[in-house]
Specification:
about 75% helix, single chain, about 300 residues, 9 helices, three-stranded antiparallel beta sheet, about 5% strand
């Protein structure tokens, strides 16, 4: 059931990737007037480089760390590895787009005729957010049919959130950004609230050490996901409209949020799975199971 939900989400994601990439070609022409200082351009450049390295290191860790877990918990690491692999690829594209969008001219980086393509970031989110939701639901002590239904609802909310946030992201008009940002916040609040509450409910069904890790997971969820709308609003808070400081702030903010939400979240999932593996071995529970893999992390 969960696998079918994820597959359906990916079908929708593929369609939106195509639409998003096409829409990116309509980026505001005002971008051609934007100039960045050497430090501003370099800060974003280095942040993208760090993010690529972090995602790549995360991929290697999640692949190699599977050997420390019982077979029934390893699929959770496969999901984590997929998330950071997709993100690593898209950050390469974002990094290249950034370099193509600005050229050094008398100690100032001025925008070229090639607009920065924000669609790469949204294409990444539309693919990785459903996988992150699978990871989050995997730590809940839910029956497979309940978990599957929850993923359906959360995946739909995630699609609406990303689809409605994109028009505001590529707009240089403050009113347009605020309008679409407000609409996008509604499904965003639903997702964060649902996961935060359900993770709290699952605490009593977890071993003591896992309870501590799950509480940390709730805090990381709130901190990392909560940083996205803040980053979205930074161009408005820093003066409104299109500005050099706003562009730099949003790119750095999104990169930090992605590192926390993908590598950080996946690492905590690993430690939860590691604790559950140790608990199973101590209690004599079988290490292999026919229960669907996505929900085994919570049983």
């Amino acid at each position: 059931m969960i696998r079918r939900s994820v597959f359906s989400s990916w079908l929708v994601a593929a369609l939106y990737v195509l639409l998003g990439t096409a829409a990116a070609q309509t980026a505001p022409v005002e971008a051609a007037k934007l100039s960045l200082s050497y430090g501003q351009f370099g800060l974003v450049y280095q942040m993208f480089s760090i993010t690529i390295a972090t995602m790549g290191a995360g991929f290697l860790f999640f692949v190699l760390a599977q050997g420390n877990l019982s077979p029934k918990y390893r699929p959770a690491m496969v999901v984590s590895a997929l998330v950071v692999a997709v993100a690593c690829y898209h950050y390469f594209r974002i990094f290249n787009s950034w370099n193509e969008s600005y050229a050094l001219n008398a100690a100032v980086y001025t925008a070229t005729a090639v607009p920065f393509n924000d669609a790469y970031r949204y294409a990444d989110w539309i693919l990785t957010v459903p996988l992150l939701l699978v990871e989050a639901v995997a730590v809940l002590a839910l029956a497979s049919n309940i978990a599957s239904g929850m993923i359906w609802r959360l995946a739909l909310a995630a699609f609406v959130m990303i689809a409605t946030g994109y028009p505001g992201e590529i707009s240089s008009d403050t009113g347009t950004r605020l309008l679409w940002g407000t609409i996008s916040t509604i499904p965003f609040i639903y997702i964060v609230y649902t996961l935060f509450v359900e993770l709290g409910k699952s605490l009593e069904r977890q071993p003591p050490r896992v309870q501590v890790l799950t509480r940390n997971l709730r805090l990381l969820l709130f901190a990392s996901w909560g940083f996205y709308p803040i980053a979205y609003l930074l161009p408005v808070l820093l003066g409104g409209g299109l500005s050099a400081s706003g562009v730099v702030a949003v790119q750095v903010g999104y990169s930090l949020a992605d590192i926390l939400a993908k590598v950080g979240f996946g690492t905590l999932i690993y430690f939860i799975a590691l604790e559950k593996t140790a608990h199973d071995r101590a209690s004599g529970a079988p290490e292999n199971s026919t229960t669907p893999a996505a929900t085994e992390l919570s049983t």
